Each structure stands twice: as C-alpha cells, then as structure tokens.
Amino acid sequence: MAVATRPPKRHESIATWRWGDRIAFALCWAAGIGLCLIAALIVGYMAIRGIQYLKPSLLWSHPSGEVDQSNSGGFLDPILGTVLLTIIGIGIATPIAVATAVWVVEYGRPSWLARAVESGIEVVAGTPDIVLAIFGLALFQQGLFGWMSFTAEGGAVFGRSFLTAGAMMSLIALPMVYGNTREGLQAIPRHVREASYGLGKTRIATIRRVLLPAVKPNISTGAALGMGRIAGDTAIVVVLLGATLRLESEGSVPGANVLKGTGSTLTSYVYNNSPAGEGNAAEKAYAAAFVLLLVVVALNFAVDLLARRGAQTGLEGTRLGAGR
Amino acid sequence: MITDDRTTDVSTTTPDAAGPPPPIRKIVVDAPPTVAPAAHTPVGHAATGGAPAHVRGEPGPERMALGGLSVFYGDNEAVKSVSLSIRLGEVLALIGPSGCGKTTLLRTLNRLTELTPGARRDGTILLEGTDIDALEVTTLRRRVSMVFQQPNPFPMSIFDNVAYALREQARKRPGRAVVEPLVEDALRRAGLWDEVKDKLDAPALRLSGGQQQRLCIARAIATRPEVLLMDEPCSALDPRSTLVIEQLIGELRQDLAIVIVTHNMQQARRVGDKVAFMYLGDLVECGPAEQIFDAPQAQRTRDYVRGAFG
User: Do B146 and A320 touch (CB under 8 A)?
Assistant: First the structure.
C-alpha cells in the first residue's frame, strides 16, 4: 500500500522481494495497525460506557456507603485523593531523582558508589508495586514513623495515610525522573561545561545556572511520566492509603490532618466498585475509570508537548546537542 | 580568499596519531627541535604577497610568559618544554598537524587541562608576573578566558549569556540595571549589538552559528580579560561568518592578548601577528607570521608550510 503511494520514480516492486522480507513487512504493518486498534478499542469502549454513566454531579458529590446506588454519591473524594497523592509522590521524587542524577553524571566518584546507585535505582524500578506497598506498610508501622499516620491508644501505629502512601509512590516515579534527567545531562557536550568553567564559574554554579536549566524539559518529561505511573497505581493505594471511601482526616492541624489521614484514589474506587472488587456498582466504576483514563491520557499528551518544547528550547536537536 | 580549498584539504586529511602515518611524518622526525626566538620587528608586507586582515602594529607589554612548560597525559608527554611569551596587542597563532599539542597548550593557559584526569603539568606559566597556580582558578579564568571550537551559548537568553559571565561568584547577584551597560559594551565589542539589541531576551540558541560564536566571544570578553584563548573558533562556521570573526579578532587585539589555535594556515597568516609551529609536542619555530610562512628557519616548518600550500 505504502509502496504504491510513493512517487512513481522511486517505485519499488514488492515482487522482487524475498518471501521472508515480504512476511516480515506484512507482520510489521499488522503489528502496528493491531496495536492502534487495541488502543482505540479500549478508549472507545471506556468512552462509550463512561459517557453513558457519567453525570456531572458524580464529579462533585462525596461518595457514601449506601447499598442503593442512587444514594451512594459520586467520586469527588477519589479525584481529590488522586490529585493529592500524585502531588505528594512527585514532590518527593523529583528533587531526590534530580539530585541523584546530577551526582551520578557530574561527580560519580567513587565509581563503585555510582554503579551501586545506578543498580539501586534499577532495583526500585523493577520492584512490583505490591511489594513496595507491603514493605512500606511494614516500615511505616514502626513507632519512629508514628507522626506520619494514625497512632492508636497503646502505641500501635496504623501506617496508612497520604504521607506514607505518597512516600512509597515517590519510589515508583523516581526512576522515571532519574532516567530522563540523567540522559539529558549526558547529552550536554563537555565543552558546554568547560565554557562555563572557562568563564571562572565553579562546578556548582555551572550545575545550577547552566546544566539544570538545560535539562528542564527532561525533568518535566520524567515528572509527567512519573505522575502517570502514580495516578495509575492501585496496590499502594489499597495497602497504604486505606482505600477509605472518603478523605478521613486525622488530628487537629488543618492541612496536616488530611495528609495524616486516609482516603482513596480513582484506581481504588474503580476496583472497589467493579464486580471484580467488593462492590457491585459497575456504572460508577465505568464512569470513574473513564475519568481516570482521561487524566492519564492528558498526562501523556503533556509529556509529548514538553518533549516537543524541549526540542525547541533545550540543547537537544540544536547544533549543540548534535555536536558531540 | 577566505578558505582555500587546498588548505582545507590539508587540515582534514591530516589523520590522528592513531591513524596511518601522515605525509608530514616523512619529514625529519628525528631532527632536534629548533626553537627560533621570536623577533619583534615587523616584516614588510610588500614581499609577502599575502594580504593581511589588519595592519600590524608594535606589540605591547608581555601578558603571559611560559617557561619550560610540559604537559603530560599519564605517561604521554603532549607538550614538551615550551617557552613562549604572549603580548598585549598581538595575536599569537598556534599551528601544526592534529595531535601536536596546540590545543593542550591552549587549555593549560587557563588551567582547563586540570579537568582531565591524569593530566600533569611541569614548568611555569606567569600571568603579569604571577604564577597562575598562585591565583584562584575562578579569578584566573576570568582574566584568561576562552572561546571554543563549537559555538556553545548556554540555554538562556542572549542577555543572560553575557550577564552570566559578568556576575561574579557572590552572595548577592547584581541586578539587571548594574550589568546592562556592561552587557551592551561586550556585545558592541563583539560586533553583535546591532543584530540583537531588539531581542536580548530571546533564547541564545535561536541565533545563527556565526552569531552564536560572536555571542561566545562577547561572553568571553565581558569580564575584560587580559588574554583571550581561541580554540579553532571558526572551524564550525561558514566562510562568511569566518570573515566576520577574523575581522573581529583584528579589532579585539588592540586591548587584548589573543592566542588562537587554527588548522587553517591561510587563517593563521591572515590573523596572526606571530605564528608558533608545533609538531609532536615540540615548539619547532615561533616568529612573525611572514617569517614562518615565507622564510622559515627550521626544516620541519619549511616542509609543513610548503606541504600545506601544495
């Protein structure tokens, strides 16, 4: 097909191809089209079911635990929970990841330590989220972390709160931010750093005023990818956030009480309402799943946008980026 | 006029030390280095045939003095006991085949070689009579600044690129009002002001390659350094931008000492007041440009210069 639409001068007849090439060519096309179809099916199905059940009131009414689905409210709390947890997670992950990437690329001595850091991050990236969740629960139930969640009479620490879940969520986002920042730093040619040193600047000034601004698009891309991962994660929410229907605050300090309290996100809401989970409110689950899908797709578009903007303003794609 | 094809050929076909032996190796490799002391009497142009980009004047006082300078990378001696003097109002052009140590020599002058692991230095380098090791490295690099082969403006606005160089390492950063006249002055001296005065806040990476390189020059001269080092500043540029930069070098040398590394011998002849020919780490010959090109004293210089011109 594609061959036929080419200008006639460059026409290349498929008849001259070997059979193996023809099959591989067809498979490549089929794989690409097949993936597009699957994606379209998922989005289409979720859109049809979601729009069918989604009412604006669902977006701003609190959920409540009624058996009668007409009284069980909407999913305002899960939406707020998703937003809050994403902000906490990425807020913890970004500075740590960027600092680590800067250390590994710009200092990286002793090299065994740099290698250890690299493999540490790979291990974190490869750990299943349910393992992180259980580990987090075991960790944050220690008395040392009592300030992060509810402590019962007698000193038992509950371990479940936005703070503890956010801390574990940051581990999910961290490898994304780290990887993107590191690649950005490695793509900056050495002579750019030397130009800064050559102007009488220290290494730290060079990092702060030249290198970090240059990798800003990379950091943003990594953060947006990490936010998508956090918004889409379920295990940590179920285990570490309590997955309570509403935001339950804990303590009397405004702001901090929400962070110490429990709640749910769209993912746990979908799980709990679907027939697969405890509830049997498929309509609500479809509507919430559609909203979640919109959030994640919007984040993915943000990634694309940032990457494209980065190509314009950053060093990548310029004569500098190519100069290496 | 700007780039002779034959000259370009020579610089691109001269392979690295690792490659097949360059034609230049055929000449007396074993000959002892003949270092001819520079004579500071300008030679008349009438006989040279080459048209210089500027009228050469009397050289000023000495800015830097190199005494027995050697640079080692591990066991490899990249620069072998070089002694040179760098004077105000004079452009010193370093020429020689690839891997002959000229860039290493240049980078040693503001201690950039220290960034290379395993690099070691012997001998003395004096800046205005002070050993450069006695100076704070940030101070030294503000007094001996550098322009690189690739135009490398920082990913910030045109204004900030120059202001970045001006703002010293200090707790309190001077405001825009303080640095603005200095930025304008630097851009004017680099001949870029008229082209960018209306878009000072535009990203510097939007400029053309030649403009970017002039911005790098503006950045380097903004702190009013005493010596400007240039490492093949035109090799990534088109002939037109090269011409502009060469003219700029001619103007800048009035209040600066300039050291330029170049592969292009036509360029060395056009911009250099004094030319130093290096070969395999040795400083073979150093003298007025006319002498090096028209009446070289060392056999190796003669062969190199002749070979380069065909």
Answer: no
CA-CA distance, B143 to B109, in Å (whole number)? 11
Read off the tokens for B226: 């005493």
For the entire predicted model, the pTM comes to: 0.77
B contact test, residue of A197, A199, A204, A318 with most B CBs within 10 A: A199
User: Does the distance separating the beta carbons of B150 and A191 come in below 8 Å?
Assistant: yes
Cα distances from B53 to residues A173, B95, B252, B269, B294, in angstroms, run: 58, 18, 13, 9, 17
In total, the C-beta contacts within 8 angstroms joining chain A to chain B are 85
Query: If residue B35 lies in a helix (H) or strand (E), which one and from where to where?
Result: none
Q: A320 at the B interface (CB within 8 A)?
A: yes
Q: Report whether the peptide linkage leading into residue B151 is cis, meaning its omega lies within 30 degrees of zero.
A: no
pLDDT digits (tens, 9 = 90+) for A87-143: 999 999 999 999 999 999 999 889 999 999 999 999 999 999 999 999 999 999 888
Does the distance separating the beta carbons of A191 and B152 come in below 8 Å?
Answer: yes
User: Distance between alpha carbon A159 and the CA centroid of its chain, in Å?
Assistant: 23
DSSP string, A57-100: HHHHS-----SSGGGS---HHHHHHHHHHHHHHHHHHHHHHHHH
**B77, B101 in Cβ contact below 8 A?**
no
Hey, is the C-beta of A202 within 8 angstroms of any chain B C-beta? Answer: yes
Going from the C-alpha of B116 to that of each of B112, B119, B243, the distances in angstroms are 8, 6, 33
Look at residue A197 and tell me whether its pLDDT is greater than 60.
yes
Compare CB distances from A202 to B112, B138, B216 and report the shortest one's residue.
B138
Task: pLDDT band for B6, please (50, 70, 90 cuts).
Answer: very low
Cβ neighbours of A319 in B, within 8 Å = 150-151, 209, 212, 236
Determine the Cα–Cα distance for residues B89 and B255; give it in Å rounded to an integer: 6
Of A198, A320, A323, the CB nearest to B112: A198
Per-residue pLDDT, averaged over A192-206, amounts to 89
A200, B139 in Cβ contact below 8 A?
yes
* A165, B37, B52, B63, B88 from B85: Cα distances, Å: 66, 10, 22, 8, 10
Q: How does A202-219 read in b/e, with b if 16+ C-beta sit within 10 Å?
A: eeebbbebbbbbbbbbbb
Distance (Å) from the alpha carbon of B83 to chain A's nearest alpha carbon: 23
In this predicted structure, what is the pLDDT of residue A6?
Answer: 53
- Contact (CB<8Å) A199/B154: no
Measured between CB atoms, does A203 come within 8 Å of chain B?
Answer: no
CA distance B61 to A61: 82
Q: How many Cβ atoms sit within 10 Å of the Cβ of residue B35?
A: 18
Task: Tell me the C-alpha distance between A272 and A283, whole Å.
Answer: 12
Q: Let me know: does A176 contact A226? Beta carbons within 8 Å.
A: yes
Statement: residue A153 has pLDDT above 90: no
- Calpha distance A246→A269 (Å, rounded): 10
Provide the 3-class DSSP secondary structure of residue B58: coil
DSSP labels, A5-54? HS-GGG---GGGS-HHHHHHHHHHHHHHHHHHHHHHHHHHHHHHHHHHH-
Handedness of CA A276, A277, A281, A286 (dihedral sign): negative
Residue A292 near residue A59, CB atoms below 8 Å: no
